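Before we proceed, please read the two lines closing this message. Let me know whether the structure tokens fit the sequence:

…
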Amino acid sequence: MAKIGIIGAGSWGIALSVLLHNNGHDVSVWSVIKEEIAMLKEKREHESKLPGVHLAEEIRFTDCLEEVTKDKDVLIMAVPSPYTRSTAKMMKGLVEKGQIVVNVAKGVEESTLDTLTDIIEEELPGVNTAVLSGPSHAEEVGRGLPTTCVVGAHDKETAQYLQNIFISPVFRVYTSPDMLGIELGGALKNVIALAAGMADGLGYGDNIKAALITRGIAEISRLGVAMGGKAETFYGLTGIGDLIVTCASVHSRNRKAGYLIGKGYTMEQAMDEVKMIVEGVYSAKAALAMAKKCGVEMPIAEQVNKILFEGKKAKDAMRELMLRSRRNEQDSLQW
């Protein structure tokens, strides 16, 4: 049995608390929102973010950061990506050198282009960071539906230790040394999912959804490899796997926000309607900035940015993508 502290009581943090408790671990969950902690203690259910998922009495909830971090074998960072840095700052002085800290959020910091584990390592020097990612909607994990993810770490021993903690009959976990690729895949797929949702909102059907997924993973892998990630990662669970589920699932907040924008909502109106953090909106500018820095073409991400931040209509952006200059599908293939 491991002692595990989960930092963040959103849908993903709560779903993981259920999984880890069912795996026999000692689990504590923290939220900065006192009212949220009071509700979880009283209702034993997150009524707004994960309704219908019962939280066992053994799972502890607290608004005291020291309580959730002290004497823990593993800490799980489950706050939305825009709050990773501010939360890590709050943890200074509470986390020991060598402490395993697993990032489970997906995003890239817009102002610095740092990955979330970069941020954790900067704010909490000396911790042993890892990342868990993959096609894993909280709504399904919380209900115990079969799911498969990848855990990445700096060393094989840490990855295998975490694999053993998370793995269960309903949650299969692979290991990988490519932390950068895992994080980039998880962040960038949200931008493509916005585009897929926009296509759905425009009523364009399955053909273009398949094209956006396929050309989207081409964009993600081009940038990811240019930044130092491994091509194999982007064609695995945390690349194409996560992209498929985020573009297609009714649980996807990014797809839903895109759908509303395709229906004519502004970005702000769509985010208000979704009522949760839409990670792709925060990652879109970062994706374009990274692409420019690496000299990589990302036409879908470019059009998503124009729709989100320049008021371009989704229908016009789709037409522009369809009429781009003609080219081979795979430049590496020779006639």
